[in-house]
Design brief:
The protein is of the alpha/beta class. The protein has 27 helices and 29 strands. The chain is elongated, with a radius of gyration of 37 Å. The protein binds one RNA strand through helix 11, strand 25, helix 18, helix 20 and helix 23.
Length: 877
RNA sequence: GGGCGCGUAGCUCAGCGGGAGAGCAUCGGUCUUACAAACCGAGGGUCGCAGGUUCGAAACCUGCCGCGCCCA
């Protein structure tokens, strides 16, 4: 397997960690060695991960950086565990966004796509893609993504396009694709239909105008936020139970400004409490009105064109909808028909998710996917556990969406995308052409002008990228994929569509076994990062300033499943500090001869300290594994951070100095432990922070690469609880002495003569040297004079520490310190007594809880006695 | 309007029936030979409010207040 260089030939560690200088080189080395290339013929268990394909024109934002950190961490761990990992990279063609970008480009030269014509325009988009598209792929390299570049795909590739056509034909033949004239979301700027989820709703300030239709007793007042559409009204609707209007139902009123007479109809869906309880009905320009129109056989009158310009002959013809609105209101006001006006009036308005233009509901003929059966299958796959959603709470959201999903408009009035494979004949024939069929030719035959929604093709991604519709070995081996990771806001975009299509195309086999949903990235104030707010942080800036490892660690450390995370620069700086800490610790260990070449001595030949850190390491390995399995990235990072910084660096390294100073076998054993712990911990951290761990680990071990190193397992040793207790005592004793020193104003580095008494009674004989070293106690000389004695209660017993503080002791500080300790102990005693004096507690609480409280009480009593005695013995100032 | 989620230290969040925690920030002290991007020490919370269940509630139930998200 991997070759290991002898210690003498291993590279020296550079004096400091400069991520920017080495990350690119390290990454390229991994790629060159084909570590990330999947081998479908291997006999390893498969692990495959779906990259939600980013837009060809997109660039990396924090959400991507988080998601890619997640996917990479998962992939790297599995690779180390011996799985055959396939993480396949690629992009989608982003129909609307890309066409917009190229059209903007053309506009700069005074051209429109129509000047070029369809064919030339599409060529131009391909050129654009080659020149400026795909920036995000380079950025993925910066993140360190361990993707298989040899399998990169693009939704407009030949193979994936074939998959699209195959899927369309299959759905069409099964009656799941149909063509219908309905109200759709139309973007007057992008000039295309949009599906419901491509529309964002916001509460905007508008106006609510009440208009009187008709005259005298027969008149009726309607309230509207869209006065300009009244020109297309074909009815007024009221609720059937509404007493106010019952007499008018069935009559007609004259529609102002037009002279047309329109009926008053009764419809259940009218809300009698809204406005006047009467609504104007414009079937061609409002989805609800369209439905009312359908129910009552009303005509649909289109009065706005695709640009949102009024087309009704007369004074308003040619006015844009937003100019027409005040103009129509003014004309109505002149006739005395405006009964009330409310401005500003806050109401929900749909905007194009691509360009933010206000959506125009528009009656038009489009292709649709009948989603009910597909959506039901998607819901069932989650319901019966074939696909698990992490965290499970979010499954509710998925069901809510999938169980009440409207049909999906899939045609887009664009040129960039997969053209709808339907041909229309001279006599009204409609022929859907499959991938192996020839389209009909001859006079009068022509192909549908529209293309498919980009999500139609990205919905196929989990299997089209593996070669579907062919049954390739890749497909056999890597489908269903193991996990899809994405933000919960994208649940309905990728997840729902991939689920529907995957189950349908792959004989009811789900596209992924797991869906991990992370939270949204917010700024330090909890506001969502967005371009319009200008509060976005560019992950590449962080990678430049703090390194990729620190950036990844920051993101993953904040990733609690399903909940959002707030980010600020300090977070990244903190992670950078952590990486630096690890660097320095390794440097120290190596400088002291830490090595993996020294065999780890048998446990009985190790010290308490060694066994303690090895046991903690075992626990950390188990914790990290558990958290990986549960997608608990924040906890995983915390476990590693805590172990490395608080246990290994703050305690073990300091204690190791003492052991190394002993020399001989003790020093040699310590070097083995130092090296072993580092080796394991670097492996554990590698999926999170691949670059720095690779650098440190190859230096430490001379191994080929951590990418292909083995994932650690717990040693299986029984934890030494006695050693753990002694170390706990040691730590407490050290802290107490330091606290005293600090309270007495002694400098941390200042040596103080002193002795530890009673170590044997506290079972700490072997640890006195360490305590002395960590608290800077020096051997008493001839002039030794005990000026202060500390009594410290420890888990293993009590010890006395004598100190020569060479001078007056600050008695006020010492009294304060003891008084504080006394208060803590007294509070503890009171708490315990409170419980134990309650017979209900002693009767009903479990015996072990009662025993525990009793033990705590005893400890508190002893503590109080000791402290009280100390206070009493202090000379009064 | 319907649904979901969240209110715990100054900030960001863990904890989700038996001793209030972490990171960052704050305060005091230190260049103690891996690390001042560090070390040592310290302070800081009626766990949103009000009831209830329980021997025991930050946690479970109900109501209220505040915030956020999704859908209409």
């Amino acid at each position: 397997m991997s070759e290991t260089q002898p210690q003498s030939q291993r590279p020296e560690l550079p004096p400091s960690w400069n991520p920017a200088e080495v990350e690119g080189e390290l990454y390229q080395r991994w790629v060159d060695r084909d570590y990330f290339t999947a081998d479908p013929s291997s006999d390893k268990p498969p692990f495959s991960i779906v990259l939600p394909p980013p837009n060809v024109n997109g660039s990396l934002h924090m959400g991507h950086a988080l998601n890619h950190s997640v996917m990479d961490a998962l992939s790297r761990r599995r690779r180390m565990q011996g799985y055959e990992v396939l993480w396949l990279p690629g992009m989608d063609h982003a129909g609307i966004a890309t066409q917009n970008a190229v059209e903007r480009d053309l506009a700069g030269q005074g051209l429109s796509r129509h000047d070029l014509g369809r064919e030339r325009f599409v060529e131009r988009v391909w050129e654009w893609k080659a020149e400026v598209g795909g920036r995000i792929l380079d950025q993925m390299r910066r993140v360190g993504d361990s993707v298989d570049w040899s399998r990169e795909r693009f939704t407009m590739d030949e193979g994936l396009s074939l998959a699209v056509q195959t899927m369309f034909k299959k759905l069409f033949d099964d009656g799941l694709i149909y063509r219908a004239e309905r109200i759709i979301n139309w973007c007057p700027r992008c000039q295309t239909a949009l599906s419901d989820i491509e529309v964002d709703h916001s509460d905007d300030e508008g106006e609510l105008v009440s208009i009187r239709y008709g005259e005298g007793a027969n008149s009726i007042v309607v309230a509207t936020t869209r006065a300009e559409t009244m020109l297309g009204d074909t009815a007024v609707a009221v609720h059937p139970e509404d007493e106010r209007y019952r007499h008018l139902v069935g009559t007609e009123v004259e529609l102002p400004l037009t002279g047309r007479r329109i009926p008053i109809v009764a419809d259940d869906h009218v809300d009698p409490a809204f406005g006047t309880g009467a609504v104007k009905v414009t079937p061609a320009h409002d989805p609800n009105d369209f439905e009312i129109g359908q129910r009552h056989g009303l005509p649909s009158l289109t009065v706005l064109d695709g640009r949102g310009v009024l087309t009704v002959p007369g004074p308003f013809e040619g006015l844009d909808r937003f100019e027409a609105r005040p103009a129509v209101v003014a004309a109505l006001r002149e006739q005395g028909r405006i009964v009330a006006e409310k401005r500003p009036y806050l109401h929900s308005v749909g905007h194009c998710s691509r360009c933010d233009t206000v959506i125009e509901p528009r009656l038009s003929l489009q292709w649709w996917v009948k989603v009910a059966p597909l959506a039901k299958a998607a819901g069932d796959a989650v319901r019966d556990g074939r696909t698990k959603i992490h965290p499970p709470e979010l499954a509710k959201r998925f069901f809510a969406w999938v169980d009440d999903m409207h049909d999906w408009t899939i045609s887009r009035q664009l040129w960039w995308g997969h053209r709808i494979p339907v041909w229309y004949g001279p006599d009204g024939e409609v022929v859907c052409v499959g991938p192996d069929e020839q389209p009909p030719t001859g006079d009068g035959w022509h192909q549908d002008e529209d293309v498919l929604d980009t999500w139609f093709s990205s919905g196929l991604w989990p299997f089209s990228t593996l070669g579907w519709p062919e049954r390739t070995t890749e497909l056999e081996r890597f489908y269903p994929t193991t996990v899809l990771s994405t933000g919960y806001d994208i649940l309905f975009f990728w997840v729902a569509r991939m689920m529907m299509f995957g189950l349908y195309a792959m004989d009811e086999v789900q596209p992924f076994d797991n869906v991990y949903l992370h939270g949204l990235i917010r700024d330090a104030n909890g506001k969502k990062m967005s371009k319009s707010r200008g509060n976005g942080i560019n992950p590449l800036d962080w990678m430049d300033s703090y390194g990729t490892d620190a950036t990844r660690f920051t993101l993953l450390r904040g990733a609690n499943p399903g909940s959002d995370m707030a980010l600020a620069e300090e977070w990244a700086a903190g992670s950078r500090n952590f990486v630096t800490k690890l660097w320095n610790a390794t440097k120290f260990a190596l400088g002291n001869g830490a090595s993996i070449d020294i065999p780890l001595p048998a446990r009985e030949n190790l010290t308490d300290t060694d066994r303690w850190i090895l046991d903690l390491l075992d626990r950390t390995v188990s914790e990290v594994d558990g958290h990986f399995e549960g997608y608990q990235f924040a906890k995983l990072c915390d476990a590693l951070y805590h172990f490395i910084w608080d246990e290994y660096c703050d305690w073990y390294l300091e204690l190791a100095k003492v052991q190394i100073a002993e020399g001989g076998e003790r020093a040699e054993a310590t070097r083995a432990v130092l090296g072993h712990v580092l080796d394991v911990v670097l492996r554990l951290l590698h999926p999170i922070a691949p670059f720095v761990t690779e650098t440190l680990w190859t230096t430490l071990t001379g191994g080929e690469s951590l990418v292909v190193a083995e994932w650690p397992k717990p040693s299986g040793a029984e934890p030494d609880l006695v050693a753990a207790k002694r170390i706990e005592s040691l730590q407490k004793l050290v802290t107490e002495i330091r606290r005293f020193r600090s309270d007495q104003g002694l400098r941390p580095g200042q040596k103080v003569a002193g002795r530890v008494r009673g170590a044997c009674c506290a079972d700490l004989v072997d640890h006195v040297a360490s305590v002395r070293a960590l608290t800077r106690l020096e051997e008493p000389g001839d002039d030794y004079q005990v000026t202060m004695t500390l009594e410290v209660g420890l888990p293993t017993g009590a010890v006395k520490v004598e100190l020569d503080t060479s001078g007056a002791v600050d008695l006020v500080a010492e009294r304060k310190r003891l008084t504080k300790d006394l208060a803590v102990a007294e509070k503890e005693l009171a708490q315990c007594d409170g419980k134990l004096d309650n017979p209900k507690f002693t009767d009903k609480a479990p015996a072990e809880v009662v025993a525990k409280i009793k033990a705590r009480r005893e400890a508190a009593v002893v503590e109080i006695e000791r402290i009280t005695a100390r206070i009493d013995s202090l000379p009064t100032a």
